[in-house]
Amino acid sequence: MIVTKTREEIELMRESALIVSKTLGVLAKEIKPGVTTLQLDKIAEEHIRDHGAEPGFLGLYDFPNTLCMSPNAQVVHGIPNGTPLVEGDIISIDCGALKNGFYGDHAYTFAVGEIDKETEKLLQVTKESLYVGIREFKLNNRVGDVGYAIQKHCEDHGYGVVRELVGHGLGRKMHEDPEMPNYGKRGRGKKFIEGMVVAIEPMINMGTHRIKQHRDGWTITTQDNKPSAHFEHDVAIVDGKPELLSTFAYIYESLNIESNEEDEFRQKALVI
Ligand code: MG
Ligand code: MG
């Protein structure tokens, strides 16, 4: 059952989403060769708690940490550890926060120093596909419209779209209805309605879409060990249109990147 949110609830959800956005912005400054994912995890936990929120993933389904940290061929759900990042790595960071009873859930794949052109293209295309998908999240469209758009954009570049892991409704629970696959057929699936909030999150592999699960019960890796990227935003339907609740603006501020990619999905300008 889809649980829609009132305008007031959507504003509370924006608060939770922005705590995650700010956390990713803080991490963006710290990501460099030599830092460990466990160090980044501690920074994130402290930052979230300093903002009066709780880490959204810690303890959820018994996950042991604040961040899912998935380097290189890891797709999602990697567990932070003491291995230092090295120049040329990519690191997908997925972060959740819980405040006022509502979750934020938001992810970005970062480059560690200089990365090769092929991997840079994977990151760029995956992020583009996130916005291509968000554009379809509007009144009277359906789940399949978002999935179709993401899949087409990524497969046109020869990439693999992970099937087993999907986006989701978001609210008082981290995972609500509906499931939001990153593949699908136009006009199929549940219809979008005013007040829905979802996490849209393409998980895109450079090679095969196939994945494997590690023995730790969490970490998901590409079957061919080629890199994978993951970008995620929280989005509501407000006045029939997609309204972004999360933002990459804090990351871009940290990294000195100019971008207007989010402007079309915001009814009011974001003040950061
Ligand atoms: Mg997430
Ligand atoms: Mg999610």
UniProtKB/TrEMBL annotation:
<dbReference type="GO" id="GO:0070006">
    <property type="term" value="F:metalloaminopeptidase activity"/>
</dbReference>
<keyword id="KW-0031">Aminopeptidase</keyword>
<feature type="binding site">
    <location>
        <position position="105"/>
    </location>
    <ligand>
        <name>a divalent metal cation 1</name>
    </ligand>
</feature>
<feature type="binding site">
    <location>
        <position position="94"/>
    </location>
    <ligand>
        <name>a divalent metal cation 1</name>
    </ligand>
</feature>
<comment type="similarity">
    <text>Belongs to the peptidase M24A family. Methionine aminopeptidase type 1 subfamily.</text>
</comment>
<keyword id="KW-0479">Metal-binding</keyword>
<feature type="binding site">
    <location>
        <position position="175"/>
    </location>
    <ligand>
        <name>substrate</name>
    </ligand>
</feature>
<dbReference type="GO" id="GO:0004239">
    <property type="term" value="F:initiator methionyl aminopeptidase activity"/>
</dbReference>
<dbReference type="Pfam" id="PF00557">
    <property type="entry name" value="Peptidase_M24"/>
</dbReference>
<dbReference type="InterPro" id="IPR000994">
    <property type="entry name" value="Pept_M24"/>
</dbReference>
<feature type="binding site">
    <location>
        <position position="232"/>
    </location>
    <ligand>
        <name>a divalent metal cation 1</name>
    </ligand>
</feature>
<dbReference type="InterPro" id="IPR001714">
    <property type="entry name" value="Pept_M24_MAP"/>
</dbReference>
<dbReference type="GO" id="GO:0046872">
    <property type="term" value="F:metal ion binding"/>
</dbReference>
<dbReference type="GO" id="GO:0005829">
    <property type="term" value="C:cytosol"/>
</dbReference>
<protein>
    <recommendedName>
        <fullName>Methionine aminopeptidase</fullName>
        <ecNumber>3.4.11.18</ecNumber>
    </recommendedName>
</protein>
<keyword id="KW-0378">Hydrolase</keyword>
<keyword id="KW-0645">Protease</keyword>
<feature type="binding site">
    <location>
        <position position="77"/>
    </location>
    <ligand>
        <name>substrate</name>
    </ligand>
</feature>
<feature type="domain" description="Peptidase M24">
    <location>
        <begin position="11"/>
        <end position="237"/>
    </location>
</feature>
<feature type="binding site">
    <location>
        <position position="201"/>
    </location>
    <ligand>
        <name>a divalent metal cation 2</name>
    </ligand>
</feature>
<feature type="binding site">
    <location>
        <position position="232"/>
    </location>
    <ligand>
        <name>a divalent metal cation 2</name>
    </ligand>
</feature>
<comment type="subunit">
    <text>Monomer.</text>
</comment>
<feature type="binding site">
    <location>
        <position position="105"/>
    </location>
    <ligand>
        <name>a divalent metal cation 2</name>
    </ligand>
</feature>
<dbReference type="InterPro" id="IPR002467">
    <property type="entry name" value="Pept_M24A_MAP1"/>
</dbReference>
<dbReference type="GO" id="GO:0006508">
    <property type="term" value="P:proteolysis"/>
</dbReference>
<dbReference type="InterPro" id="IPR036005">
    <property type="entry name" value="Creatinase/aminopeptidase-like"/>
</dbReference>
<comment type="function">
    <text>Removes the N-terminal methionine from nascent proteins. The N-terminal methionine is often cleaved when the second residue in the primary sequence is small and uncharged (Met-Ala-, Cys, Gly, Pro, Ser, Thr, or Val). Requires deformylation of the N(alpha)-formylated initiator methionine before it can be hydrolyzed.</text>
</comment>
<feature type="binding site">
    <location>
        <position position="168"/>
    </location>
    <ligand>
        <name>a divalent metal cation 2</name>
    </ligand>
</feature>
